[in-house]
Amino acid sequence: MRRILPIFLLALAAPWLSAQADEGAVNLYSARHYQSDDALYSAFTKATGIKINRVDSDDAGILSRLKAEGSASPADVILLVDAARLWRAENDGLFQPIRSKTLEEAIPAQFHAQPKADGGIAWFGFSTRARVIVFNKLKYRKSDFDTYDKLADPQFKGRLCTTTGSSPYNVSLFGSMIEHIGPAATETWLQGLVNNMARSPQGGDTDQIRAVASGECGVALSNSYYYARLMRSSNPEDRAVVEKVGVVFPNQSSWGTHVNVAGGAVARYSKNQANAVKFLEYLASPEAQKHFANGNNEWPVAKGVQFDNAALKSMAGGGSFKSEVIPVSAAGQNQTKVQQMLDRVGYR
Fold first, then answer.
1. DSSP 8-state assignment for residue 203
2. Consecutive sets of 10 residues in the chain, 348 residues long: mean pLDDT of each?
3. Which of 3, 84, 155, 325 would bridge 332 by S-S if both were Cys, CB 3.0 to 4.6 A apart?
């Protein structure tokens, strides 16, 4: 069972973690709440003999704990599930930039932090998830939503469902839109999304997909792996949802579909730096990269990795799609602008 803890309990969590160096362990603070990752960690321990001591929370809880612990933190590796949060943690000085030829050769530059003056890199992405559009197949066609821009078209007034505007995955998408079309056009687009809402933003991405299937909405935004989970489910209710809903990877004829990352870093005050780097390098290995795809429906980041997930391949028309090529860190750099826009347009 995973150990997800509210922020106010994190200080009491995991008494087995030590702030002392331990050549046989790595202390992991993880926002990845996927049970499928247990096999990934076990494989690392089997291959290296290094034990993983793990505490799970959400991104905000982990970052709050790191700030509270300061130099006394036992954390060695931090795993977060959003590029904007990775960027923020880097700028708050919570990571320790590292040099690793293995990581730099495996991970494309757009999926890791910008190198420091000495060449050190603060964090690396290890898997991606696309921000796709799902739509009711009985009412619409893929061509109706082949760009993100079309979500703001007045013809879809009262048909759009989303999570809250400030959810990390939306903030990252909106931050990337600033890079593509500029601040003024992005704010106009966000106002169009608000105007087209079928209801107040609520729930998670799976809730949006189900709302489209039920007819409450005509179209919604979702991370790709939530749709893939439904595709792979043996639950008849999930299968019925998939039958009613189509998926679009937007902007294939222009800049490409927005992708976000789950990524990792060495904690600033790590006492087991060598173990921490070994663990991050393992996450970039073909074995681990295939696990991200086959175990949790995420796309591998490392170059040249093949995977067997039929749901991902079916979604993307053979397994690949055109993704945007801007650095994912742009989402973090633009997040203050995005939040100000959301306030102005009333995107709750």
1. S
2. 41 55 89 89 96 93 96 98 94 97 96 96 97 97 98 98 96 96 98 98 98 98 97 96 97 97 97 97 96 94 90 83 92 93 97
3. 84
Delimit the domains of the chain by residue range.
7-127+261-314, 129-257+327-345
Q: C-alpha dihedral over 298, 56, 108, 317, to 10 degrees?
A: 10
Same CATH fold, 129-257+327-345 and 7-127+261-314?
A: yes
Quote the CA–CA distance of 268 and 274 in Å, as a whole number.
13
What confidence score (pLDDT) does residue 287 get? 95
Homologous superfamily of 129-257+327-345: Periplasmic binding protein-like II (3.40.190.10)
The pLDDT value given to residue 259 = 96
Q: Reduce the DSSP state of residue 38 to 3 states and report it.
A: helix
Query: How far is 296 from 201, CA to CA, in rounded Å?
Result: 26
Say which residue the tokens 């299968």 belong to: 239
Residue 161: its H or E element: strand 160-161
Which position has the token pair 């048909």? 159
Count other Cβ atoms within 10 Å, centred on residue 167.
16
Q: Which CATH class is domain 7-127+261-314?
A: alpha beta
Answer whether 20's CB lies under 8 Å from 271's CB. Answer: yes
> Which residue type occupies 233?
S
Tell me the three state secondary structure of residue 149.
helix
